[in-house]
Structures are given as C-alpha cells and as structure tokens.
C-alpha cells in the first residue's frame, strides 16, 4: 500500500496518476503503517512507513537534517534517467551534499538522493510529481516535446524506486491479456466522394497537386513514377467520374476495408455540411466547412458498420458548446442507433473548457488530444485518461496523424523518415503498453496523396510479433474504463491484497495482474496472472 499526502488540489491528480500506474494506494492517514509514504506537500509528521518518498523542488526540513543544500531551478529542465531523457515543466531542486546521489540527473547534477534514517529509507526527489501530472493532462506538451512519453517515464521512475527499495507491490498494466498494447486505426472523413466537388477550391487544389505538383515531386525524387502515373490518370478521369461513367476514387469505407485486411477501424464523420463553425480566436474559416454530412451516406455507413467499423463524430462546434455537441451527436446516433458516440474535433480544435462541454453533450469519449504538426504524446502518455474537471468523459490520445507528417507546411517528411519516427512510437507502445491511435484521413489512400504504401508499412510494423490488439476506438476506451473499475483491498492481518471489479467486463480482453516481489523474496520476483473480473482474486505478497 502506498499512502499519499498532497494538497487538496493535487489529490485529484494523485487519483488519476494511480489510475495510469494502476497499483494500491490511498490518501495517507496517521493511524496506519505504510510500506511507502509518498508526499508532495511535506506533511510527514506522525506518519509511519518503511519508505518515505518525498517530492518537491523547495528545501525541506529533511534536507537540512542531512546537510544537503537545494538549489531551485525554473523549468523546463531535461532529466536523464536510465538511458532516457524527459522534461520537467515546473521548478526542480538540484541537490548538493554528503548523501548518496540517486538515479536522476540534470546537466550532470543530482535531482534526487536517498539516505537511511533509523529503520526507514528516505528517497528525496527534486520536483513535484503531481504538479507535473497536472501540467501534462491539462496543458499538455509543446510539439517540440511530442516524441517523449513523459508521463510514462514518471511511472517508470516510481516503479524503479519501489523495486530498488525492496517494496513488493501489485499493478495492473495498461495491456490487455495476451497483448503488448492496443492499436486503434481511425480515419477523419473530411471529404466523401470527389463528385461532390465541381468548381471549388478542393477540386482546383486536387488538379494542381495531382498534375504539376506530382511532376515536381517526381523530379525531386519524392514520388516514384508509378504514383505519378496514377495521379495523372486520376486527373484525366475526372470528366468520366463526374459523369458517373468511372468510379469515384474518394470512397474511404471501401478503400480502408481493403487496406486493413479485416482489422476493424473507426471513422469520424462530419454531422452537418456547410458549417465552418467558430475558431478558438472567434473567427470563422469558410474552408473548414465540408460538402457532405453523415445522413447523406446512410447506405455506405450501414455497410461499413456491418463489416465491424465504428462510427464517431467529427465535431464542428462541440468543443465549445454542449448544445451544439448534442445536436452533432444526435445527427450520427439517429443513423446508427447508438445511445452515445465518440468525438474528435475537426482541425483538432480544443480549449480548456472543452472537456466539460463534451461531457455535458453526452459523448462517451474524445480523441482530439494530438498535434496538427507533430506525432507523439501531447499528454506524455498513450493511455486512455480522464481530463481534469470531468467525471465520465475519457480521452483517447491521438499518436500518429498522416497530414502532420506529410504536409509540406507541417513536418514535411518523406515516407522513409516518417516510418523511422513512427517506429520509435511503436517501440514505446511495446515497452509501456497503452494505445497507439493512428489517424489516416479519408482520401489519403487515393490520388493525389497516395499515402497507402506508407500506411501498409506502418501496419506491418505494428503487427510484427502479432502482439497488438487491433480494436475500434470505442472498444479501447471500454477496456480502459473497465480497468479503471478494478479495485485493491488489503486483507486484514495479511500482507496480501484482493483485486475485484466494480463494473462488468463487456466483450473485451481480460486484464493482467502483475505481482512484483523484489530480490530477496521467497517466490519468483515477477508473477503475472489473468484477471477477467468475474470473481475477486486474493493475492499474497
């Protein structure tokens, strides 16, 4: 059991942190003896624990007792640990004294130390853990820091401290049983059929990029001749396409059904055509409006649902207005028969009040948290999490988006470099678990983009080893929602713990219970058990 002391404002973050690092904890009470006492507010007087884990950048009484000076440095500061580097966004405390330096460094200087006080171990860490978690889950990381899974590294550091201190504990990792991680293939449908575009800027842009733009790419070596020929053929076929004599090549449901070879994906559909909505700066951009709406593709939608695809909302104004959000959700659910739906905002619009607005509108989950101009970890994690200020809405963070990688005005990557960067994110998914959410737009397989080769190679990399659970976005959120319902209860008079589920598991995989018994324990150091939630499971440490 980990007892936690923190300010009232930080206790919400402590609760969310321990939903992500799913282990046994509680707000500390002075009448109990804990294996670990984790404090971010310095309140340890009268507390009893084997290991005191004290976070904070400012000098504490214990620092003076062991004659250790603390220099407070404003963040962001990069921390080095175990071959990894991650940022601290708030202030950090750098230590200088006669105690043993620990495991964290910044520019070669120690950010933690440990010492023994009687029978107790004190491990001092020079930053405020829950302040960092609040920053990650409310403001998020800038695009420059996108490649770093910062929150997952905070969890890994704490896990290391527990193991290195000889503390046995139980955790439920963010990995469905039999899998290393969850992968969600998602598609924002901004266009549905090139026939809808007659003499507009979309068609003009397509013709320019597919003709002259393709020639420039071919000369520069950014496109093979085979793709150039496909684009030029598509331009020449436009009169036949518009006359209904040739197939429309912007048909995402059929294209992705072929490309994904039985893997089920999630399509985010625009609820209302011709509505640009309002931008965060209060303006309205006419080119944000789209020429179709979900009700116009009812037949194609039904066929895709029959193949196992999920339909969700590509929101226009839901991010800023709950009433608009309800109308947008109803425009979809009236077609699908769902009682609720997920949402991802068009152009990834989002604001501080968006979580409350989306929850009030009744959405089951949001998947907007990502970048228009980067790939990686806006929240520092790929786990499904609860945004501050909400109760039921869960966030499925976006990891990889095609337009962020390939648009010249954004990252402007060639396929090979894009795949190299995606490989790092896939490797992190295998290391940390969580979800890998890919967004490949509706027309990205078709002329003029032709990003299908890169998509196929990305799918092959994700599928290597056959350890990824390919789930719809809704299924992934449902699994994490069920994981959040799992509870730990101590057994009176016993060092063990009981794990139970307070919610029924739907048709999603079971969880894994991982029991850590550090070196010196009589049994195996790490044991893994399958937990399906049917009956409570008693575990001995």
Keywords:
single chain, 14 helices, Rossmann fold, alpha/beta, about 550 residues, 4 domains, TIM Barrel, 9-stranded parallel sheet, 7-stranded mixed sheet, elongated
Description:
This protein has 541 residues and is an alpha/beta fold. The chain folds into 4 domains: 2-172, 3-Layer(aba) Sandwich (Rossmann fold), CATH 3.40.50.880; 181-193 and 250-474, Glycoside hydrolase/deacetylase (TIM Barrel), CATH 3.20.20; 198-244, no CATH class; 485-541, no CATH class. The chain has 14 helices and 28 strands. The strands form 7 sheets. Strands 15, 16, 17, 18, 19, 20, 21, 22 and 23 form a 9-stranded parallel beta sheet that branches. It has a 7-stranded mixed beta sheet with strand order 2-1-3-4-13-12-9, with helices on one face. Strands 14-26-27 form a 3-stranded antiparallel beta sheet, with no helix packed on it. Helix 1 (8-20) crosses helix 3 (129-139), helix 9 (322-336) packs across helix 10 and helix 12 runs parallel beside helix 13 (452-463). The N and C termini lie close together (11 Å). The model has no long low-confidence stretch (mean pLDDT 95).
């Amino acid at each position: 059991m980990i007892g936690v002391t923190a300010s009232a404002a930080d206790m919400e973050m402590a609760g969310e942190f321990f939903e992500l690092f799913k282990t046994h904890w509680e707000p500390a009470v002075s009448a109990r003896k804990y294996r670990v006492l984790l404090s971010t507010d310095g309140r340890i007087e009268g507390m009893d624990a084997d290991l005191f884990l004290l976070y904070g950048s400012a000098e504490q009484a214990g620092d003076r007792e062991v004659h250790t000076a603390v220099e407070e440095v404003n963040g962001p500061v990069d921390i080095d640990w175990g071959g990894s580097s991650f940022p601290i966004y708030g202030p950090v405390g750098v230590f200088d004294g006669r105690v043993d330096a620990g495991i964290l460094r910044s520019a070669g200087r120690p950010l933690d130390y440990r010492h023994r006080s009687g029978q107790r171990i004190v491990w001092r860490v020079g930053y405020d853990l829950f302040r960092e978690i609040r920053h990650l889950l409310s403001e998020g990381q800038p695009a420059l820091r996108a490649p770093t899974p910062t929150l997952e590294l905070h969890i890994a550091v704490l896990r290391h401290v527990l193991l290195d201190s000889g503390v046995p504990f139980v955790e439920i990792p963010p990995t469905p049983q039999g899998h290393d991680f969850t992968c969600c293939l998602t598609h924002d449908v901004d266009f549905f059929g090139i026939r809808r575009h007659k003499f507009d800027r979309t068609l003009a842009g397509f013709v320019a990029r597919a003709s002259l733009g393709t020639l420039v790419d071919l000369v520069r070596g950014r496109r093979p001749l085979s793709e150039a020929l496909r684009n030029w053929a598509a331009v020449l076929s436009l009169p036949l396409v518009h006359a209904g004599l040739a197939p429309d090549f912007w048909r995402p449901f059929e294209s992705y059904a072929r490309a994904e070879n039985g893997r089920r994906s999630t399509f985010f559909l625009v609820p209302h055509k011709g509505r640009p909505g309002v931008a965060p700066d209060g303006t309205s951009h006419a080119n944000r409006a789209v020429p179709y709406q979900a009700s116009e593709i009812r037949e194609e939608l039904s066929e895709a649902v029959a193949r196992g695809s999920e339909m969700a909302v590509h929101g226009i104004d839901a991010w800023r207005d709950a009433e608009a959000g309800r109308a947008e959700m109803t425009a979809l659910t009236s077609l699908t028969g769902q009682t609720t739906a997920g949402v991802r905002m068009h152009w990834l619009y989002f604001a501080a009040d968006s979580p409350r607005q989306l929850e009030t509108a009744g959405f089951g989950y949001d998947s907007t948290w990502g970048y228009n101009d980067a790939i990686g970890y806006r929240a520092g994690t790929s786990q499904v999490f609860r945004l501050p200020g909400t109760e039921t809405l869960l966030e499925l963070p976006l990891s990889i988006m095609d337009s962020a990688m390939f648009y010249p005005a954004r990252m402007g990557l060639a396929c090979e470099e894009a795949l190299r960067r995606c490989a790092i994110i896939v490797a992190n998914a295998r290391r940390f678990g969580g979800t890998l959410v890919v967004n490949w737009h509706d027309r990205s397989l078709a002329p003029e983009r032709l990003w299908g080769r890169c998509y196929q190679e990305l799918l092959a990399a994700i599928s290597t080893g056959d350890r990824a659970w390919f789930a719809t976005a809704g299924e992934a959120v449902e699994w994490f929602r069920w994981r959040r319902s799992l509870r730990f209860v101590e057994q009176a008079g016993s060092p063990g713990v009981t794990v139970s589920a307070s919610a029924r598991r739907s048709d999603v995989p079971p969880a894994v219970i991982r029991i850590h018994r550090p070196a010196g324990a009589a049994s195996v150091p790490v044991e893994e058990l399958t937990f399906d939630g049917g009956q409570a499971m008693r575990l001995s440490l």
